Amino acid sequence: MKNSIIFFLLSGLLFSGCADRPSSGIRGSRQEKNHPPEASIEAVKEKETISLTIAPESYPVSACKIKAKLVNRTDERVETGTRYTIEYFDKGAWVPVPLPENFGFHDLLYVLESPGEQTDSTVLDLELYLYDKPGGYEPGKYRIRKTVRTATGTRELTAEFRLEPTNLP
What we know:
CATH architecture: Sandwich
Strand content: 35-45%
CATH superfamily: Immunoglobulins
Shape: globular
Distance between the termini: 49 Å
CATH topology: Immunoglobulin-like
Largest sheet: 7 strands, mixed
Helix content: 10-25%
Number of domains: 1
Radius of gyration: 18 Å
Number of helices: 2
C-alpha cells in the first residue's frame, strides 16, 4: 500500500513541468466519419490502410503535447493501447527518447472497429504528451512510434513532426 502511494506521488511530480498534462501520456476520443466514395487507384490504396498522422506537423519546442489521429480504413478491427514512443532524428538515424524513471502509461485499450457500409473509416483522435527528455527537447525532426494489433498481426506505425525554436520578442 505504501509503495502504491509513493508511486502515485512520483507520477504526479513527473508531469509537474506542464500544468495541463494528465497523469497518462495519451488522451483519445473515438469518432466515425462519412466520406464520399473515391474512384482513383490511390484512393483505393488509401482506403485499405491504418494510418497515424500528426497535425499540425510543426510545434514550438516548448510544447507539452501534440495532436495525432489514428485512422482505420481496413476491413479489420484495430486495437491499440496508450503506449507510444518518441524518437528524434540525429545524424541520419532515429534515436528513441528514453522514458523518464518511474514513468508509466495507463493500461487502456482503444478499439477501432472495421468500417462498415455506413462509414469508410474509423478515427481515434489522440493527444500525445511529450514526456520529459533528459536535457530538454531541441528544435528538430521527431516522430511518434505506435503499435497497433489486428487479427492478422501487429503493425508499427510512425508519424513525423517538427519542433521549432520558440521566437522570443
